[in-house]
Amino acid sequence: MSNNLVRSIGKLWGVIYNLYMKKELVLRFYKRNQLQVLCALYIMSLFCGVALSMLLSDDPRWTGWSLSRLGEASVNRISAIFFNSGVFMAGLILMAIGATVRHNCLQINQCSAAKIATTLMVILMPICMFGVALCPNDTMHGAHFVFSRGIVFGMVILMVLFPLSLQHINRRERVISFSFPIFATILAAQGYILKNSWFVIIEIILGFAATAWLFVMCRHFDMQLRNHKLRVKK
């Protein structure tokens, strides 16, 4: 009886220890890749919200309008909840990304980049995302138009100003970063010219391009912060 009790306690302790070690590994991974994890959550929030709203949409004509049509409760009901919730949650996560980028910039003495991150990623773009989620296109068209265009404007400005403010990236990395806003501007112009279903397709492509740029930037900062900590230790 006592041996069985000892074995049971030993197994329970082993399970608890393994769970503790897994927790430590998860926390260590998060600390080393904090921005990338937050960016992945941001992408998942947007993707799940938009994808579910597409699947649950009651309006088959939304493909001829824009993604904003998915957030209109008057024509989409349940899908509007997923779309607006996904955008709102993504805005909160983007605010966390901006605050973390600002903190990292200050740690590696990139003050101008910290100011840009605060203005665009903590204040302007999250507010615009909240506005898109809370001001549907059908009931508050004017406000929705301003907020949705504010997201695009803020992202393009971020892609241009952020690489210019960073001192430790090389010319090749700057050129690659600048190619994103040029690509986005060309696609946006084509979307307005072609309209119909092309506009939705171009919106999706622009969304993928913007999230890809954001993830690359987050990965770059995670690596820079790790290198900075190694130099400090030495």
Order of helices and strands: HHHHHHHH
Q: Cα-atom Rg, whole angstroms? A: 22 Å
- Mean of pLDDT: 76
Give unreliable regions as ranges: none
In total, how many beta strands? Answer: 0
**DSSP helix fraction:** over 70%
Q: How far do the termini sit from each other?
A: 56 Å
Structural class: mainly alpha
Strand-residue proportion: under 5%
Tell me the overall shape.
Answer: globular
Largest sheet composition: none
Instruction: Count up the helices.
Output: 8
What this model shows, in words?
With 234 residues, this protein is mainly alpha-helical. It has eight helices and no strands. The chain has helices spanning 2-32, 34-56, 73-76, 78-107, 111-134, 141-165, 171-194, 196-233. α4 runs antiparallel to α5. It is globular, with a radius of gyration of 22 Å. The termini are far apart. The mean pLDDT is 76.
Feature tags:
single chain, 234 residues, 8 helices
Short account of what is shown:
This protein is an all-alpha fold and 234 residues long. It has 8 helices and no strands. It is globular.
Summarize the SSE layout with pairings.
Blueprint: H1 2-32, H2 34-56, H3 73-76, H4 78-107, H5 111-134, H6 141-165, H7 171-194, H8 196-233
Helix pairs in contact: 2-4, 2-8, 4-5, 4-8, 5-6, 6-7, 7-8
